[in-house]
Design brief:
Layout (H helix, E strand, L loop, with lengths): L2 H7 L1 E2 L11 E4 L11 H8 L6 H4 L5 E4 L10 E7 L4 H8 L5 E3 L5 E4 L2 E6 L5 E6 L13 H12 L13 E2 L2 E2 L1 E6 L2 E5 L7 H5 L12 H4 L10 H7 L5 H9 L19 E5 L7 E6 L5 E3 L10 E7 L2 H9 L5 E2 L9 H6 L1 H4 L1 E8 L3 E7 L6 H8 L1 H9 L3 H9 L19 H5 L6 H10 L19 E6 L5 H16 L3 E6 L2 H9 L5 E6 L24 H8 L10 H13 L5 H18 L3 E2 L6 E6 L2 E2 L4 E4 L15 E2 L2
Parallel strand pairs: 3-15, 4-16, 18-26, 20-21, 20-22
Antiparallel strand pairs: 1-6, 2-3, 5-6, 7-8, 8-12, 9-10, 11-12, 13-14, 14-16, 17-24, 18-24, 19-22, 19-23, 25-27
Helix pairs in contact: 14-17, 21-22
């Protein structure tokens, strides 16, 4: 990448390590001349149904250096989804077209739709210079007006969003986005936001490029006085529902459910992700704004076919029989690895190695803000949580579920991270059923005649833990073992297997007893601090009302205790601190408080994952970070993946 771009538009962060040779991005020089295009598009040009390639590309398009070699056009890439709520499976493959992006190593933020940027010394202002001449998939120009519209008219609309997303708010105030000229926009925050570029590179940073003004404005009252009538005609109850169904959002299925919505992605929806769909098909974007080093327009691959399976077994059969070209999602379970390894020749694939960025394989979030006062009191009792933690036989669980490839762990950065906190990571992980029982006795949870414990109010101690079997089947197995461990100390628990949509609904409504999810923050603690304090409305499942209080600056939700408010204040300080050493010192204070409060219970350190790549699919790195912040495999640039004969 040219030094000019590195000096003005790339930020560095702690190195993940070991994955050199990533596909690189740069801007074409002024003498750029368009190269080749897909044969089907060339035919449309010849037939007068599409403008020539030079008119569809920017004057200086983004140039991608292929990972292995310049590719050839053609082919349908096959990948699997699970059920009707696996929308992030599409996002991870296709939807990485934000203003900036991560490099393959997960070490630097690079230019994307913004070719460069400037940041003020106090980190309150970010000025982005867009690539001139980029077009939406329908040929309409992408300009500063789209970015301003997306934030000022959509994301900051309180009828669409109950609170401004955390990435776009600092000190309780939302960002202000203003147009400088057609290709320059300025983001101004109320206080320093030193982490904004890193957050902008994650999936949750995609809002600035998500809503085309020329299309989505028709679904807002500000631009359409007849919107309520339009909503009624469309068969929905409100204009907000119509907006969501037509324009989607970052993490909802309707993002991929409307074939008419223009996009900046390499492929556009042809067969949508709607209820009952057995597949989702996306075809190449004729106006995609990236080219390879020879000037050939990307993507190389004609279309992506996401087959929708109802169970992992079907996915595995498709992989083994050679019907999937790249897959790690849903099949990356240790129990599957021997089968996948043994069938490499039969399925004609090679293995993909995933480097975990998470800290915890399975984090248990007891609902400390439960609607039932008695349940709330029980879960809020720290000694209750501590007793349940030491009542888990982690060595047995690790041996049986994870084939011995992990170690007991609670939360916090991974052991290799410079901010690693020993107490936070290791406390209450040593199995001691007798001690756990004594602690429960002392806390007032005595055993009844059936051997199970009762609360001080006389009701039986019983709760359910929500888990999504289609997404994390290993967590179901882990919880079943935990259930047997807790039964030995007199605790009755139900493993509540539910679909992902219901999981989120229960959590968002604060209607759950407890839920599980892999604990984040192992290599990216600043980007995903949901376990350290009540930060994320969809992530900090132990106290959703507290997260709403934080993200709304106290306007919604429930006021949290002082220890939470102190961590919220410290995190705001940390993310406004550009100096990495000073930022680390502040974050360590957060980890110390979180360790003392012990709000969540972890099982074991996150283990490395894997996947498969068909042997004829090239330009695919065989080692990638495994992270939501680095939404694999998208940052590896699937637009430059190519098939060989």
């Amino acid at each position: 990448m040219p030094n000019e771009i590195l000096s003005r538009g790339v930020t560095r962060r702690a190195v993940l390590g070991g994955m050199a040779g990533a596909a690189a991005l740069s801007l074409a020089g002024r003498a750029f001349a368009a190269g080749g295009e897909a044969p089907a598009l060339a035919q449309l040009v010849k037939d007068g149904k599409l403008p020539p390639l030079a008119e569809r590309l920017p004057k200086k398009p983004m140039v991608v250096t292929p990972y292995e070699k310049v590719g050839t056009y053609g082919g349908s890439l096959r990948r699997g989804l699970r059920g009707s709520s696996d929308h992030n499976g599409i996002l991870r493959m296709v939807g990485n077209q934000s203003l900036v992006r991560w490099n393959l190593d997960f070490t630097a933020v690079q230019p994307n739709l913004a070719e460069r940027w400037e940041v003020s010394e106090d980190a309150t202002q970010f000025t982005f210079h867009l690539i001139e001449g980029v077009r939406w998939s329908d040929g309409h120009p992408f300009t500063s007006d789209d970015v301003v519209f997306a934030i000022e008219d959509c994301v900051k609309n309180t009828e669409l969003y109950s609170a401004t997303p955390a990435q776009l708010a600092v000190a309780g105030k939302p960002v202000t986005v203003e147009k400088i000229d057609d290709y320059t926009v300025k983001f101004t925050f109320a206080a320093a936001n030193a982490l904004y570029l890193e957050n902008l590179a994650t999936p949750l940073g995609q809002h600035p490029t998500l809503f085309p003004k020329h299309y989505c404005s028709q679904f807002l009252p500000k631009y359409n006085p007849n919107i309520e009538a339009d909503a009624k005609k469309a068969g929905v109850t409100s204009w907000t529902e119509l907006f969501r169904s037509r324009c989607g959002d970052i993490e909802i299925p309707t993002r991929w459910g409307n074939v008419d919505k223009p996009t900046l992605d390499p492929w556009v929806v042809k067969e949508p992700y709607v209820g009952g769909a057995t597949r989702v098909v996306m075809t190449r974007n004729p106006y995609f704004w990236q080219v390879d080093t020879e000037g050939n327009q990307l993507p190389y691959i004609d279309e992506i076919n996401f087959g929708v399976s109802q169970d992992v077994e079907s996915l595995m059969l498709n992989v083994i029989s050679g019907k999937i070209d790249i897959q790690e999602r849903h099949i990356s379970v240790l129990a599957n690895k021997p089968t996948l390894s043994q069938n490499m020749q039969k399925g004609d694939y090679r293995l993909l190695t995933l480097v975990p960025s998470a800290s915890q394989q399975c984090q248990i979030y007891f609902n400390i803000t439960h609607k039932d006062p008695a349940m709330r009191k029980m879960f809020a009792d720290k000694s209750f949580r501590q007793a349940l933690s030491i009542g888990i036989n982690r060595p047995e669980l690790i041996d049986i579920v994870y084939f011995g490839q992990s170690e007991p762990y609670q939360a916090g950065p991974r052991p290799t991270h410079p901010w690693y906190n020993e107490k936070y990571a290791r406390q209450f992980t040593e199995y001691d059923a007798d001690k756990a029982g004594a602690m429960l006795d002392q806390a007032g949870y005595k055993k009844g005649g059936d051997g199970f414990r009762v609360r001080p109010d006389g009701q039986k101690v019983f709760f359910s833990i929500d888990v999504i079997p289609t997404l994390y089947p290993d967590l179901v197995d882990a919880l079943e073992l935990v259930k047997t461990h807790w039964a030995q100390i007199g605790i009755d628990m139900k493993v509540n297997t539910i679909e992902r949509a219901l999981y989120y609904t229960r959590g968002d409504d604060n209607a759950h007893d407890a839920q599980v999810w892999p604990g984040p923050g192992g290599l990216d603690p600043m980007l995903d601090p949901r376990d350290f304090f009540a930060f994320h409305p969809q992530g900090s499942r132990y106290a959703i009302p507290w997260t709403l209080w934080y993200t709304s600056n106290g306007a919604r939700g429930e006021e949290p205790p002082e220890s939470q408010k102190k961590r919220m204040k410290l995190f705001d300080e940390a993310r406004s601190t550009a100096d990495l050493d000073k930022r680390g010192a502040v974050m360590k204070q957060i980890f110390d408080i979180a360790a003392e409060e012990f709000e969540t219970v972890g099982l074991c350190l996150a283990v490395g994952g894997f996947g498969i790549i068909r042997n004829n699919l090239r330009n695919v790195p065989e080692k990638e970070p495994d992270s939501w912040s680095w939404p694999n495999p998208g940052p590896a640039l699937p637009q430059q993946f190519t098939f060989t004969s």
